[in-house]
Amino acid sequence: IMGANVGTTLTSTLVSLSFITKGSEFRKAISAGVVHDFFNILIVIILFPLEYYYGVLTYLSTGFSSRLVGSTFMNLQTELSYSVFTKPIIEVVSQLMPYPILLAILSFILLALSIKILSKFLYRSITAGSKEVLQKYFFGGPYRSFIWGTVLTAGIQSSSVTTSVIVPFVATRKVSLKQAFTFIIGANVGTTLTALIAAAFKSEVAISVALVHLFFNLIGALIFLPFAPLREIPVYLAKQFGKMAMKYRISGFLYIILTFFIIP
Fold this sequence. Notes:
Layout: H1 2-7, H2 10-16, H3 24-54, H4 56-69, H5 83-96, H6 100-126, H7 131-137, H8 142-156, H9 159-171, H10 177-190, H11 192-199, H12 204-224, H13 228-247, H14 250-262
Membrane topology: Multi-pass membrane protein
Pfam families: Na_Pi_cotrans
GO molecular function: sodium:phosphate symporter activity
């Protein structure tokens, strides 16, 4: 789950590379793309040893899940499932393309395209008003940004989409990197809704896994959000990386290859 939290940040970093030919916009875009990476990596650095040696997340998740399973809410025999929508499509596509590797490649391409299209749609919808309106209603303070990040991501059920939308905001100076970062913290919390829905009416183990995801992101938010000096750390690292990427354009690609593939 910790690895998945780092891996999911790849999308916004890839989106930022689309600004590679746009001078100073690229510096801001790549900073916005990697600040999510650095944030999740820092949380892993803090929580991984605590989980490995003391089982902090395991203790919290199993404790809560055992109480939830015995509750009246969890005794509801309701099944939330998306299979009615997705299963027919999956079966048709898999029959048309019986080769698993090609199907996986096609899935990845379709995922990237759908995120790109949805990101553009959201970007145009949100920026329909003036910059002042955007600042007032969406980014008027760290906690407002955090709440919007949580709500929008919970609604869309994809932090990849909402964090990718932030990249062009920062690149075009509509939103500062500091404002974007608190929005991203909210997106980290909002994305846990997907796992909670999937596990809500399953076994105790499934609920425990979903709760680990929730607690990982909640603890990360509680560490960084209330303290301005701590919020500066990922932002500073992202800005420094942006300066380096501006000077050496190849560094963005090398960073992706190293961070998401070679090092793991």
